[in-house]
């Protein structure tokens, strides 16, 4: 089985990297057809590259971001096309970030682009069943249209837990300042913990604006760094945080950072959502708190600070879950099984 991995994707983006690695580990031959230079020119480059390999593959995967690329893909091949949707542009821009008002021409454009991209594909990949159900509700597709492929994490670059002799608890978060992430709730939780022997590393250049809300030295704001350096920083923390926003998107996705923390062997605290409960179990391999609730997040951090055994057990169980079910070879298996049936 040979697959054309097609589009304007970033090879180094974790989702694409994990898909390629997992497919190859499952015995799928990958031919990459990738162009990133130029606004319009990259699509012409894709057309030329594809023409040279058009008879050399069995199915095509249009990688993220593939909303425009899948239109070209459908025009140039009659073979089965799989779209890795990853998320909805409409949901991100209109419902989560709220950068576009509903019922405007721009909102309609985003909805139509999502709908058309998914409609043109024979199969659509999404990361959770909750996300699939949301797409079905939003765009009116049948369940059979979708395949759940969990995000997982790249086990090659993940560093294992590193011991430390600190006299305080270190909490780690990395991300951006979108409502999904819930950085404001993290900062408020840190302020509630001002009298506790707890410090925070918050990584991401776009969240440095929260520095003004924290002047007690408990939060260390760190600029965006390379993925390898980020994993090294994560490996020295005691607790890693997931997402805490109160938008609909928070309810349907599990972010990369959660899988990465499991892989590193850290105790994870994240919002209690239908998506998370597809993979994780509260107090067994993670600790869940109410979404959009700084007080509950602070209470859960205190719980793990006071109970070393619970923290170590959650971390160990999370690491084992990653090894058993969440490596690239395992998360791509549902897609591989479908590909081998065609």
UniProtKB/TrEMBL annotation:
Pfam families: Glyco_trans_1_4. PANTHER family: GLYCOSYLTRANSFERASE. This is Glycosyl transferase family 1 domain-containing protein.
């Amino acid at each position: 089985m040979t697959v054309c991995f097609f589009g304007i994707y970033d090879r180094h983006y974790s989702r694409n990297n994990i898909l390629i690695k997992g497919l190859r580990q499952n015995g799928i031959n990958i031919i990459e057809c990738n162009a990133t230079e130029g606004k319009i020119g990259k699509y012409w480059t894709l057309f030329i590259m594809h023409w040279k390999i058009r008879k050399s593959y069995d199915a095509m995967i249009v990688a993220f971001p593939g909303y425009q690329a899948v239109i070209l893909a459908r025009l140039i091949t009659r073979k089965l096309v799989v779209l890795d949707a990853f998320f909805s542009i409409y949901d991100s821009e209109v419902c989560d970030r709220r950068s576009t008002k509903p019922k405007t021409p721009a909102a309609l454009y985003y909805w139509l682009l999502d709908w058309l991209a998914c409609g043109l594909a024979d199969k659509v990949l999404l990361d959770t069943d909750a996300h699939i159900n949301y797409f079905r509700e939003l765009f009116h597709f049948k369940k059979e249209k979708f395949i759940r492929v969990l995000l997982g994490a790249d086990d090659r670059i993940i560093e294992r837990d590193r011991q430390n002799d600190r006299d305080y608890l270190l909490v780690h978060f990395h991300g951006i300042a979108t409502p999904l992430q819930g950085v404001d709730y993290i900062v408020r939780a840190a302020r509630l913990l001002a009298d506790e022997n707890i410090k925070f590393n918050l990584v991401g250049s776009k969240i440095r604006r929260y520095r003004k809300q924290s002047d007690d030295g408990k939060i260390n704001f760190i600029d965006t760094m390379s993925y390898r350096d980020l994993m090294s920083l994560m490996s020295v923390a005691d607790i890693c945080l997931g997402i805490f926003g109160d938008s609909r998107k928070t309810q349907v996705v599990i972010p990369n950072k959660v899988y990465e923390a499991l892989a590193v062997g850290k105790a994870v605290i994240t919002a209690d959502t239908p998506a998370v409960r597809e993979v994780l179990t509260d107090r067994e391999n993670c600790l869940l708190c109410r979404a959009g609730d700084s007080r509950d997040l602070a209470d859960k951090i205190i719980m793990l600070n006071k109970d070393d055994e619970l923290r170590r057990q959650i971390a160990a169980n999370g690491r084992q879950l990653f090894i058993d079910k969440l490596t690239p070879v395992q998360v791509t298996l549902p897609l591989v099984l479908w590909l081998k049936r065609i």
